[in-house]
């Protein structure tokens, strides 16, 4: 693996380890703000020195972005976790300029609609990488994912993100600006500078570092590293994964398959096979 990709993979693995450890300690009554603080403290203790964006946490119907209409409403709130409530932990740490952006879906106790939603997300991981490999335009892929969401009886929730994005380009942050300075309660100063430069550069080439269904995404997949985050909703339940996708001139692959949601799907598939063998 290319050295730079390996460094990004390590940061992604670190972020997912943080999400798993924080998730394991969640209990009824904890707030979104406290969960986000736990993630931030954990990441700083483990070497994170800057942020693409600081950790977010969404509980209950906020996992489906109910009531979220303005950017500041994505920030963690005083919503308290309850038994049977889904949650999403999202973090985008940077270590020595190397960025990752992850989304971890969980539930405190049992919630059958959430279980089905999370299980069905597996097909979207396969669909997205297959469509990128086929060199469909980013806008076409977005539309194809929308069609799959509708067929499955779900709602597209990633369209609620700023820019209606299903993904965005990431890379190494190279800036002389100070690290660990956060603006607007969310994004790192150096990240915003880099995004601004990328927007100008890509626009000159008729592209965008933001992947959505709009005119600027009507081009073949741009080689590079992309944080991809299909986010589905069913009534007041939402679930997502977010991980890094490597795009080359003629191929694509997920940066790492040893991730919590991939392991969850593999375990569920094995359990279904064992159950079928005993019938």
Automatic annotation (TrEMBL):
Pfam families: Peptidase_M24. It comes from the Bacteria. InterPro entries: Creatinase/aminopeptidase-like (IPR036005), Pept_M24 (IPR000994), Peptidase_M24B (IPR050659). CDD domains: APP_MetAP. Residues 6-249 form the Peptidase M24 domain. This is Metallopeptidase family M24.
């Amino acid at each position: 693996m290319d050295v730079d990709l390996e460094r990004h993979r390590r940061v992604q693995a670190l972020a997912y380890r943080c999400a798993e450890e924080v998730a394991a300690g969640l209990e009824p009554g904890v707030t979104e703000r406290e969960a986000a603080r736990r993630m931030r403290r954990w990441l700083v203790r483990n070497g994170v020195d800057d942020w693409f964006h600081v950790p977010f946490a969404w509980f209950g119907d906020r996992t489906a972005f109910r009531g979220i209409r303005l950017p500041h409403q994505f920030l963690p709130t005083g919503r308290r976790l309850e038994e049977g409530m889904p949650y999403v932990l999202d973090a985008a740490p940077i270590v020595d300029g190397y960025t990752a952006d992850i989304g971890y879906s969980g539930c405190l106790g049992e919630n059958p609609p959430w279980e089905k939603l999370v299980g069905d997300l597996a097909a979207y991981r396969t669909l997205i990488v297959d469509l990128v490999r086929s060199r469909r335009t980013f806008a076409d892929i977005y539309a194809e994912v929308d069609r799959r969401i509708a067929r499955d009886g779900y709602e597209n929730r990633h369209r609620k993100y700023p820019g209606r994005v299903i993904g965005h380009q990431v890379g190494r942050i190279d800036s002389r600006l100070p690290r660990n300075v956060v603006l607007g309660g969310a994004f790192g100063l150096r990240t915003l500078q880099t995004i601004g430069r990328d927007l100008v550069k890509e626009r000159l080439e008729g592209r965008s570092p933001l992947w959505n269904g709009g005119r600027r995404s009507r081009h073949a997949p741009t080689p590079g590293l992309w944080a991809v985050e299909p986010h589905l909703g069913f009534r007041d339940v939402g679930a997502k994964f977010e991980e890094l996708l490597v795009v080359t001139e003629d191929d694509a692959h997920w940066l790492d398959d040893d991730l919590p949601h991939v392991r969850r799907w593999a375990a569920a598939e094995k359990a279904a096979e064992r159950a079928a063998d005993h019938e």
